[in-house]
Amino acid sequence: MESLAGYVYKAASEGRVLTLAALLLNHPEAETRDLLGFVTQLAGQRSTPLIIAARNGHDKVVRLLLDHYRVDTEQTGTVRFDGYVIDGATALWCAAGAGHFDVVRLLVSHHANVNHTTVTNSTPLRAACFDGRVDIVRYLVEHAADIGITNKYNNTCLMIAAYKGHADVVGFLLEHGANPDATAHCGATALHFAAEAGHLDIVQALVRRQAAMVVNGHGMTPLKVAAESCKAEVVELLLAHADCDVASRIEALELLGASFANDRENYDILKTYHYLYLAMLERHRDPARPVPKEPLAPPIEAYGGRSECRTPQELEAIRNNRDVLHMEGLMVRERILGSDNIDVSHPIIYRGAVYADNMEFDQCIKLWLHALRLRQKGSRNTHKDLLRFAQVFSQMVHLKEALRPAAVEQVLGCSVLEIQRSTARMEAAPEAELPQATDNYESNLFTFLYLVCISTKTLCSDEERARINKQIYTLIQLDPRSREGSSLLHLAISSSTPVDDFHTNDVCSFPSAQVTKLLLDCGANVNAVDREGNSPLHVIVQYHRPISDFLTLHAIIISLVEAGAHTDMTNKQQKTPLDRSTTGVSEILLKTQMKMSLKCLAARAVRQHSISYRQQIPSSLEEFVELH
Ligand SMILES: *[C@@H]1O[C@H](CO)[C@@H](O)[C@H](O)[C@H]1NC(C)=O
Ligand SMILES: *[C@@H]1O[C@H](CO)[C@@H](O)[C@H](O)[C@H]1NC(C)=O
């Protein structure tokens, strides 16, 4: 039955209607119903023959299934579209989303529900709006589809069409009563979406319908959104139409110019000057009463320690100085958007990356540190920012560029904070987000170790070293653990600790004798155990490169033993490090290092012979016995 169902599904999926008809011939009714209701899971999709035929546009198959077998049009499945996974989609949703008009017609004429919603509350009409098929949109609306149903973010059909740039669909929806001023959860209107994406014709259509200029959840009007994303034509159009005051006008022009200075896709330094200059003229239109800039914040060192230009003359003076204009742009953006705006940091990071590419590492690090602080102030997830530092630091160490210990220390400090926050995020994560939250948390631990490793290769004074070690000490006190319960020390000596491969692996690798030593110096617990009860010593004796990397193996075992590792500690399987040694080399090293004490021998004897000891010896000794 199951394999027959598989053939039926395959025939429907591939549009082989004769094969399908033959496969369905001469079965009892109940069996046919089962075959056509059977859900096949394939490549992340879960669908029935009808759904997959509709998805793939096989109208003859759909007709056969509907006319002859009266298959339920309301079956739902999980389908993939453009990399999105859609849960709870009907055949009609799939046909509308994939642009198969014939199939849409067939389904609707067989009474498929035009208002059916998926798990995220998307309708077939929304799917057609996304795809930009005005013919299907018109047909659905003519067949009583509800234009007003929003998805679970209160995002309307009009918004998705506006964002995707389907002007004909937008025009049709507006003519048929779509509300141009509806707002989504994020506070955005269709005008925000069209402005951000830079669809001039759609912005025009919305403005003609008197779409309101409102502020979204990030405090941005459509005008500001367009300026922030370098959509100059949209800005000019909105400035001409909207009755905005002088302040908003100036703000939009400044933001637009500033954004052109540091945008990966839209970089255009001439436009930067052009719009900043227009704004400046606007400020000084009435020489008797110029519009001054807001009280300026103290200059930011990362931006070169300058203040923003205040007069057309000051601006003219930097006209041909690109570096200064770039920084002017960053300053203007931070002032207008506010330091906690989510978009402020991207251009800063971009400009830093350009500096790094030109080997101007100090400039890069200053900018990235500034961006990192802004992002941490806004409680954003910074695991990628921290990794980026490990990468650029590694590149510098590798190229023998001078790396300032203070920078390493500051990034270590930020990564301690990020590890605390990612721990909290992990603990608060709903089940579905837990794997991602755990990945982020672990990647922070790894990044921290890269930074520790980099610090061992950085020239420091005693005082600088002490400040770096203090950050390491702080994290060790928090005792963060990986999924497997590995401590920082376990991770530092494990060859399975992943190393990022963009520059980082030129400098960092694990096991690392230097990192082990440093962690121990900073107070790491040498006898900490992971989930399996393995101590760091248990881990290192399984190192699989005992010959080629003998020095590392040797140095780590010595460090651990000197720091007080118990060579006879047992894990959950009652195995000591010696039992777990996988190579003769580590066995010999261990044996020569083992300093068996009478105390240890006695503890082992107590354990081996199950002699009762609880509450008969000092409690500190009880713990000691339990280690053995
Ligand atoms: C879809 O919803 C609209 C608006 O609520 C309603 O008028 C129409 O009858 C519904 N269509 C169907 C086929 O249920
Ligand atoms: C979403 O829209 C519904 C219906 O219009 C409304 O009741 C609700 O408050 C909106 N939710 C948000 C968060 O805007």
From TrEMBL:
The keyword Repeat applies. SUPFAM superfamilies: Ankyrin repeat (SSF48403). ANK repeats lie at residues 45-68, 87-119, 120-152, 153-185, 186-218. It holds the Pfam family Ank. The keyword Repeat applies. InterPro entries: Ankyrin_rpt (IPR002110), Ankyrin_rpt-contain_sf (IPR036770). Transmembrane segments: none annotated. Keywords: ANK repeat, Repeat, Ubl conjugation pathway. SMART domains: ANK (SM00248). Pathway: Protein modification; protein ubiquitination. Belongs to the fem-1 family. This is Protein fem-1 homolog B. It comes from Gadus morhua (Atlantic cod).
